[in-house]
Amino acid sequence: MLLLLAVILLTRAEEPICRLQETPGFPQFAKDGDIIIGGIFTIHSSTYGLKHTFNNMPEPLKCKSLDFRELRFARTMIFAIEEINNSTEILPNVSLGYRIYDSCASIPLALKAALTLVNGQEAEFSSNSSCTKPSFVPAIIGESGSSPSVAISRVVGPFRIPMVSPYATCACLSNKQEFPAFFRTIPSDYFQATALAKLVKHFGWTWVGAIRSDNDYGNFGMAAFIKAAQAEGICIEYSEAFYRTNPREKILKVVDTLKKATAKVIVAFIASGEMVVLFQELSNQNITGFQWIGSESWVTDPEFLSKDGHGFLGGAIGFGIRKSVIPGLKQFLLNISLPHILSNPLLKEFWENAFSCSFPDPMTTSSRRPCTGSENLYDLQNPYTDVSQLRISNTVYKAVYAVANSVHDLLSCKKSPNPLTKNNCGKNINFEPWQVLQQLKTVNFTSKNGDKVYFDENGDPVATYELVNWQLNKEGKAEMVNVGYYDASERQPFRMSNKSITWAGGEYKAPKSVCSESCPPGTRKAVQKGKPVCCFDCISCAEGEISNQTDSIDCIRCPVEYWPNSQRDQCILKEIEFLSFEEILGMILVIFSVCGACVTITVAVVFLHNRDTPIVKANNSELSFFLLFSLALCFLCALTFIGQPSEWSCMLRHTSFGITFVMCISCVLGKTIVVLMAFRSTLPGNNIMKWFGPIQQRLSVFAFTFIQALICTLWLAMSPPFPSKNTSTYKDRIILECDLGSAAAFYSVLGYIGFLAAMCFVLAFLARKLPDNFNEAKYITFSMLIFCAVWITFIPAYISSPGKYTVAVEIFAILASSFGLLFCIFAPKCYIIVLKPEKNTRKHMMGKMPSKSL
């Protein structure tokens, strides 16, 4: 007996048998063919929870909540395969089969389905010692979810079995190093996230909330959106994540965050399953008034749209895959025979749920009415029968055709030009999945409904979206309306259509959602401490700065010759300031200047008319006329200081002032010396007057004036005065003034005048007590006191006076000192000449009077 057992064991050892560790799952739809294409869809949205006791083998997971939309996706795959089998253009003489599995939104079931597709359904098979065998399918269509697709792709990717997903949008799947065999016919969430950020920016929302599915789809999608939003200057007030199977406490926490937040716009990068759970809680708490921005997963789900009834999520807006038309699909979906229904448990379940009936079953009892099989699918309105918004169904359709075209190219199924020549396409169909993978990378064709199908280096298609808005139609039912487009391949990818948008609450005006109101022009944004950049205070621009845009970050300093207006949103030319003839101050100074010159001329006329009288002769008539002439010039030179400075006026005003005043002081100095010399000459034996006669007097005036003229000439030659714009004294005005050019030259001119005035004052002071009846020295002394007092006070007043008042101070000093000389020296003489002619006699002039102190 033992010997027989040993022989049996040895025999079995020679022929090894490979066994699967677990019973393989059975497909929901299956058909044999020359080439089998696998399919995995989330036909049921959840599974029953099982409690594991660890005493027995775990029971298989049971699915629940049939998803009519996903069933349509699976049936669309069957339709595409049947269409290819009936076509002579693609894979002639080759029949395609399929094995379609239901993942029930469970990653373990999705992995089991994928491994079954790879290994086949044989529980045992003989092989070599390594237990290797060819893959059962060359490609897999699916899965719908991103997380199951990530799991499946990690398993089948190392075997180079291509997987083409019509609905997995996670940007992470574009990484070819991690997922080398993954392709998809739906754009990556990277593009959708960018499009959503541009949409939020387009409507001026800078303060939004964010809710996401706590899976690969939501986490990666929201991460891409937040990055794109930050680049657009959008702030996220909160970011909450949850999954449909989380405890209710977790959902309540998300809803509580939503209620406490101030953002009125919510970006929901969330799958339909999670959105259903959140929607139920929102309905329970009657929370409305939020503007929902949805990702493609739920915002284009017609079943979810019908559940909301345009209430809590009314006015929702988001991007969806562009809808299309698949000829013949509707007839295929609706034409299901009764034997086919009864032979397929999934179709049987669909029929019972769709018509709320049940087929007779001796094993179970049901309160539903019995199904007759004569129910009409054409009268049914649900996501399975609705083909008006074919979006994901079209990506399933393109995925099947992408695999078929790759196999077609791999088998070199080229149509013969001779119709009598038989196509040898199906003669040899032995190929490996990695060969299909290579062909998928280069596939490029146009589908029957006009869509171009190809993949970029990441296995992604070109990103095109429609912007859809939930609106009420004329019948009062909610529907999706296309209100815009997004095409990532264009220079301006985002554009709106002419259709109006309905917002939350049925409003036709976009809601506002900002942390802080926009800062108007004239202010800048100052970020509030500890808060996002979208929360800020508006601060007025500093002096001399403007901001001419809304929400300016910085203020712009105006150019030197410009100054902000009162609103500080525009730089305007500064007011030009100079002492003009038109203003009151300028007019007053002109009047005084002209009056001074006229009075001086009048005095000269009086002296000329009375030139033979003793008082005129006694006061050296020649020097008096020279003095009157120079005083008239002094009054008139004040006019050169008024008006807009120019190159010539700047040079003229200072030089004329310096020369005329030296001429004037020279004459006064000459008169003082004459008085002193005249007294000395009356002494016995003193003949000093012959050394200071008329010729010497003229020469002294000329010499003193020549020195000043020489100083002014050097000044003009080396560094002349020039017109300049003073922008430092006043910030809001430009003062047009004459720059001295050389301050040393200017002070030399003033110093020389001061030196002559001081010398004149000293000599006049020495001659003040001479015993003549009409001693001119005391009047000269008094006039020099006024002259010196004026010009000593002029210096600090000149330095401290701002703008045009600097020029006014200088003119005032010129006029004051000129009037002082005129009145002090000539007023007493004119008084006697005009009013006291009896004193204008030689006897009176030669009379000796007691001297008086000054």
What does this 3D model show about the protein?
With 854 residues, this protein is α/β, with parallel strands linked by helices. It is 43% helix and 16% strand. The protein has an eight-stranded mixed sheet, with helices on both faces. It has a six-stranded mixed sheet with strand order 2-6-3-8-9-10, sandwiched between helices. The chain has a three-stranded mixed sheet with strand order 29-31-30. A hairpin with a 6-residue loop joins strand 21 and strand 22 (494-496). Helix 14 packs across helix 15, helix 16 (584-609) runs antiparallel to helix 18 and helix 19 (647-681) runs parallel beside helix 21. It is rod-shaped and about 165 Å long. It starts with a helix and ends in an 8-residue tail after the last helix.
